[in-house]
Amino acid sequence: xxxxxxxxxxxxxxxxxxxxSIVETGDYASTSEVVREAIRxxxxxxxxxxxQLEALRNDIAKGLADIGAGRLVPFDTDAIVARGRALLxxx
Length: 91
Known about the structure:
This protein is an all-alpha fold. The protein contains 3 helices and no strands. The protein is elongated and about 60 Å long. The N and C termini lie far apart (55 Å).
């Protein structure tokens, strides 16, 4: 079983009122439960951000490796715009 640590949290009155209101409606048993849920959500969000950043770094590294190896495709702005317009016309 994990160790429980007591903390004091200070927040603006507006946030405190929201927390109290969702406890009063019965959605949560206590303010501590609300804070724990918020922290779990924050942890999940941070984890997802780290994964997305790692994927972006991998894509950049792959792109730089392609450039270094001479695997390049000419950038044709007109073709990109025409393709975008064609896709929009189909919707």
